[in-house]
Fold this protein.
Amino acid sequence: MNSLGLIFLNWLMVVAAGSLISAKMIKRMGKTHFAILQVLTSILLPLQLLLARGVKNLIGVEYGVTVGIIPIFYSSLLILAPICLLVGSQFVLGCKLYPGGGGSSIGRVYIYEASGSAAGGFVFAWFLVHYTNPLEASSCLAVLNLLSALLIHGPTKRSILNIVIGLLLVLNVYVLTSGTSGRLHELSTGWRWRGCDLIHSQDSVYGNVAVTRIDGQLNFFMNGLLMFTSPDPDIVYVEETIHFPMLLHPSPRRVLLIGGGIGGPIGEILKHPVEEVYYIELDPLIIQIGNRYAPSQAFDDPKVKVEYVDGRLFVKESEGGFDVVIVRLPIPSTLQLNRFYTEEFFRETLKIIRGDGLFSVALPSSEAYMSREMRRHNECIHATINRVFTSSIAIRGDHTIYLASPTHISYDPEILIERFRKRSLDTRLLNENYIKYKCSMVESVTDFYKGLRINKDMEPIGCYYNLVLWNVMYYPESRWFFDTTSEWTLWLVIISLSALLVCISTFRRGRFAETVVAVAVLTTGVAGMTFNITLIYAFQSLYGYIYQAIAILTTSFHIGLTLGASTMNRWVRRLVRPIHALAETELAVCAFSLTILLILTALFQTPYARTEVVLLILNIIAGLIVGLELPLASTICLGFRDGGVEKVAGTLYASDLLGACLGTVLAGVFLIPILGIPQTCAGIFVLNLGGLLILGLGALLMIAEAYTPGFGILGGAGVFCLILGGLLLLPYTAPKWLIAPEWYSHFISVALGVLIVLGLFTLIMVYKVLQARRRKPFIGGLIGVEVEATEDIESGKTGFVRYMGEYWKARSAESVRVGEKALVIGKDGPILIVRKVQSKVETAR
Amino acid sequence: MVLSRRDFFKLALGCGAGLGLGSLGLRDLPYSKIQPSTSASSGLQEARFYRVLAGGKVRCELCFRHCIILQGARGLCGNRVNIDGRLYTLVYGRPCAVQVDPVEKEPQFHMLPGSQILCIGTAGCNFKCVFCHNWEISTRTVEETGYVDLPPEKAVESALGSRVAAVSFTYNEPTVFYEYMYDTAKLAREKGLKTILHTNASMNKEPLNRLLEHVDAVTVDLKAFTADFYRSTSFSDLTPVLETLKTIQSEGVWMEIVNLIIPTFNDDMDSIRDMCIWIRDNLGVEVPLHFNRFFPAYKLTNLPPTPVKTLEEARDIAFKTGIEYVTIGNVPGHEANSTRCPRCRKILIKRTHFTVHEINIVEGRCRFCNHKIPGIWRSTPYTPAPWYGEEEL
């Protein structure tokens, strides 16, 4: 999951780079070049897929060895770079070539891009993943690209390019129809399993199940992770995780096993005097393939009931009455898995456990020595269990088994041995001495790691501890970094984000106005990606399965984008002050982040109400709001300068994507796991408020000279707010408020964040205004220039005109309509006096 | 493409900085960056095997690497630091893993079966195996792992207190805490305890010979029988390992060999046969050989566990070669967990995993056919006490 995020990040980054670079070199390019770009894309797509499969061999990583985050980063960058650069430059070139030019052409291209993404996601999730292998899918895409290249270039032309396209088309069709792609697919998937025979590989909607064979042993993998082996499982793991919870119960009659049931465990459970065993497995394919290659009689036993359902859903809807509940799932490396280690899950489990029943879960551990990271990871889960159940113990070993019960747990070895004898268990590992030995390894709850946090659905810190465990293994030096980040508070995030915004806005000195718009696009980009990730995370947490759902959720986001962009494209011509509209969009993003917060809180109160559609709608709305922004921003930016569509398109598209990158890393890796969903939303709120402020600042500066007194009012209001906020922040313990104290502290953090952002921008504002004032007046220079009216100016009245992207108040003797040109003939204080330009001088635009 | 010179420089600078920063992370630096101050040497024990070179450099003479260590720097193991031209050990009396384990876990099958031993390990290692099971200590410095303050006297005291049969130096490579091990072993011997060394056999001859005077039994991890394996997966060398094996044998110290079979890495039966032949010819047929099942660990997690069939094949080859005591480990309940008499093929010591059920050795001889069984045995037959009630330190 982590590497998936990293790859995604690289994708966004390189596309951004592609659009930025091409903006600089695209001046002389035309349709032929676009066609060439598409042809290159069609060639690279399948090649990169093969490259991705063989990359481990290429970068010299020994088979079977996993690598750290940096090699993953580099190799995925290397693989993705060529195609992403092409994609990025296609966008910019597309904007330039789109007939009409100007802001609306960028908007149009953006719409097509977004709807293409939506369609791609949809087609992939519903058709390609079921009916084709990835190579065939990429071949189909190549054909699509080649056809469009042909159309753009003109199919009737006699040129080398057309011949190349023709040849490639034939090649791809051949590959698709002759079965070459199938063979190539098998060959290339085999690269991953060097030394073992891949005997089965199949995708379900939940992931890929693969079976390899080596020396008579079958190995079953789920998404590349080893699930179990046959005929000899990891005997210690199987027997310890099953028999200890079973032996600790005096008469385990009804048993619930969540996950990990194939490859022995069910058979082990049946050795005890049970009446009913419920085995919960999400993916039927696992059992289907498992039983096909490693048939087990356990599954034929009438006592065993297999349910293909999400484990949490089962627990939630179960009538209960279980004596033993055993969770045998992988470590909480993703949110989807982390749901089985959260306080909420444990509470749900507690409800279905009967009387003196037991709950059991195991985590990889170490007997001799545990590092800080591993202790923190495991103790976080243990502390969470301990918080819900009356008593809990941990049996240390290579896998530490955590056992919990609503009543007191007694682990007297003599009693266990007695039961072991009475049930006459036939085991490979367990015997009387071993039971005694393991009982001597029992730890009951002692003092937990300092500053340990509880793992919750909305605050999945377990996931983060897992990420740290994984990363510190490869890079022990990174420990200090993760130590610091795990202590992050919303506070710190807000301060650093505002500092970042300030840095970016002051980066390009010459074009402050344009930068301001780009920053607004960037903050919205961050927000858009964060919303998307938050909703995907929420979906994972609430409903579990994800593989196909990611595609659907992302598609809905892109549908929203398309809708938003096309709506704005229609509106933008009619807008008098696009910058106001931009500010309003930013405001909408702020409002939406709070809405999302509230709705998700409500949803998490009642999980499993079938509310997936709510998340879909939220995702569409998120896309919609974000989609509004780019066409708007590009129109505004184009107002600042003449021509240069590709430059504007390049800059804005890149800042949108960079925002998305930032959102991916920040929200996906750090904010959601560390701060939790509510605070992440609050952070996005503050960030976009910052964007709004910068925008306001930009707009203000443009008319600063005209409205200097207004600034004073604003400053005064700011001071007032500062004082008010300061008063609110005085140490004050809320009495019995309706809202929880935690929430109160969230609000305080948000308020403080706003304050800091406000304060910082007031400072820059003062600085910029002072700078503007120090500049020599250049009023004289205005007379004689041509301006454009941005609203209707009745004769003798005042209205706004635009000059080089700046808004000026103007008065005219005769009425001037929107869009008409006028000549400045004089100046009355801050108000320009204009005269309508005769129609023959009017430019074509 | 139009790029101003200024833009070009900016771009180049940015890319350079990015690549430079990124490449920092690429380098796998086993050396710690923490530089101890000069005053830190006051509490440290000086290393016993090193040579002073010109320019304040020293050369560590403990293991086959012969690290040349600059002032303020550490050896590859991360445990030895050069302070002002003198080499100090950072882990003397500072183990980070101390635990009572069954002697079978070592594995040490021919030494007081069923008894308990006190196992001691510190941070650091002179190998860099990608499949290390104790990577949490072996790939870290003592600063990173933390430690318990347990000087030799206290270690021996606690061993006596928990009534164990032996003290074992294990978990990481004990060579990297040589001084601590040497003093503890010497003291433990004086107090009537046995001592066990679990090593990768990369120690140099001189320190090894001195140490073996105070050691009763050695378990050697013979990781594979190809230099290539040692080079690529352990960042080390096979030759010194074979030399050490011969040295230990010639010193007459009891030795057992463990071979962890990793699928697709060292499961080639020809190479296993070569290994068995080499052991037979150089160490004799009475050296017990354990084939252990591999489980994914540390960086080598994309592999399945070793098929039991592979282990059985290896055992058969070893038997055929003539090696007399061959067992299979990490497969609880497997028939080859137990040791059989090479003459009458009856079970000498019946085991499940680390549990001993039955011992049929009387005064070092097979109870059934009176065949002499090499090893360290108690004089009278006994039923091993169950491991129970012993607290971890």
